[in-house]
Amino acid sequence: MDAVKTNRGTVWTASAHIITAVIGFGVLSLPWATAQLGWVAGPSLMILFTVLTCYTSTLLASCYPSGDPNGGPRNYSYMDAIKENLGGFQVKICGAIQYLNLFGVAIGYTIASSISMMAIKKSNCFRSQGDDSSCRISANPYMIGFGCSQIIFSQLILDFHQIWGLSIVATIMSFIYSIIGLSLGIAKIAENGKVKGSLTGISIDVVTPMEKIWKSLQALGDIAFAYSFSLILIDIQNTIKSPPSKYETMKKATLLSLGVTTIFYMVCGLLSYAAFGDLSPRNLLTGFSLYNPYWVLDIANAAIVIHLVGAYQVNCQPIFAFVEKTALDRFPHSQFIKTEIPVPIPGYGPFKRTPFQLVWRTIFVIITTILSILMPFFNDHIIRILGALGFWPLTIYFPVKMYIVQKKIPKRTAKWLGLQILSVACLMFSIAAAAGSIAGIVYDLEVYKPIGNMA
After folding, report:
1. What is the third-level CATH fold of 3-447?
2. pLDDT tens profile 47-66
C-alpha cells in the first residue's frame, strides 16, 4: 500500500508520538540529575536542551522533503534524508548510530518495565508481610512477560501509521505517573517541613570530589536522553497528512510536545529534588517505596508499564521498517520476504503478514529480552550513554549539516560560523556525558553478578 495514501496524522497524533518517546520515562531520572547539578545548573541545562532540541528538530523536519520544506521528493526515514542531502559514508554512520540507539532503548525499556512490575509485587508483599520483610523478587519472569507482549504488538502493528492509538494511550499513562510523582513530591516536602537541595547540587560531604565530577557528567547524559526523539522524527513526520505542509504541522507538533515536556520536566524534577535533596533516587518513584497508601504507587508503576509497551513500539518501528525494506531490496523475488499470508486471530479477524515479518520481529524481541536478563544493572547506564552518544550526531550534527547543504550557506559567513560553534559545543557536551557514563559502567562491572535477583 502506498504510504502517502495512508497518512492521516495531525498535530495531535504527531505530538502523542513525540511525548510517548520523550516524556514519562525520562522524567523519572531528572530529580537525581538535578541533585548532582543543583538549583542553578539543573534547570538551566533543561531549558538549554529544550531550546537546542526545538531548534535542530525544526531544521531536521525541513529535510523531510528534499530542498523545499513545502514540496519536493519525500525522505521517509532519517537515513533517506542523510542519503539525499549528504550521501556517502555519512549514511552508514547515521544508520549505525540511529539503530544502535533504538536497539539499546528497547533493552532499557524492557528492564525498566520489569522494575515497575517488581515494585507492584513488592508493594503487595509489604502489605501482606509487613514493611520489614525482605520480599526479594527475580526480574526475569517480568522481562519475559514484557517480551511476550511485545512479540504480539510487533505483529499487530505494522508501521507508524497503525500506532497512533497506542501512542495516545501511552501519552496518557505518562501524564498519570508523572502527576503521581509530582503529587507525592509535594506531600514529601510538606512532611519534611522544608525545601531541600542546594545551588551546586550534592555536597562533597556525601561524595568524593571525583565522584561529584563523574556523577555530574552522568546527569548530562540523563538530560540528553530525556530530550531525545530526533532519531524517529522523520518517521513520525511521514505519518502526517497534507495539506497543510508536513513541515508546518511537524514544527507545531514539536513546539507543542517539547513545551509540555519541559513544563513536566521542570516541575517534577525540581519539586522532587526539593523533596529529597542529596538523597534523590535514580528513579523518582522508588523514593516512595514505603509510601502509604500502596495503591497510589501501584497505579503509577502500572502506568509506567503500559507507557513502556507503547514507547517500545514507537522506538522499534524504524528498525522493523529498515530491516524489512533492506531485505526486500536485496531479495526482491523471495517468497519468504514478499508473500503475505493470512494469520487468523480469534475475535480480531485475519491479518496479513509475510513469513519474514513474523520470524524477524519475533527474533528481535527475543534478543532484546535475553540481553535485558543478562544485563539488568545496565538500565541507568544504557540511558546515559545512549543519550550522550546519540545526542550530538542525531540531534545536532546531521540536522545542522543538512540545513547548511540545503540552504547553501556559504562558508565562513556569520550564520555558518554560528552553526559550527553550536555543533562543536554540543560535541563537547556529548563527550563529557559519555565519559561519565563509561565511568559508571566500569564501577558497576566490578560488583556485578549476572542473572541474579534485582530486588
Report:
1. Hydantoin permease (1.10.4160)
2. 888 888 889 888 888 877 65
